[in-house]
Amino acid sequence: ASSAGLVLSVEVLKASGLRNTDRGLFRRSGDCSDPYAVVSAGGRKLWTKTIDNDLNPVWNAEAFSFTLGAAERSFNIEVFDSDLLTFDDSLGKVSVDIGKLATGKWLTQKESLGQGNGTIEFKV
Description:
Layout: E1 6-16, E2 35-41, E3 44-47, E4 64-68, E5 74-81, E6 89-97, E7 108-112, E8 119-123
Organism: Alexandrium catenella (Red tide dinoflagellate)
Protein name: C2 domain-containing protein
GO cellular component, one term: endoplasmic reticulum membrane
């Protein structure tokens, strides 16, 4: 089956068990990572809003839509910690194989963000 011009819709729901990377000069007690998620596909990147001080964020973001080229076989979701003064830290990433997805219906998936990085839940 050809996937030329296939439209992929991704809805980022939540993450859990994220690492806390907020440390440094201005660290206050109770400070945690300020996560947001970036979905990359079809040469585009779209991101959720940032949720402050939460290692188990719930985004329930609106669906992001991407038009995929025929050669594309996967999309990525990466979670970052938003930092005001430094580069945002990656909290983990997953690459999802498009070939394993059912077409025509929403399916909730839960994937690891890598060893010790928690999990991400999303619908495709």
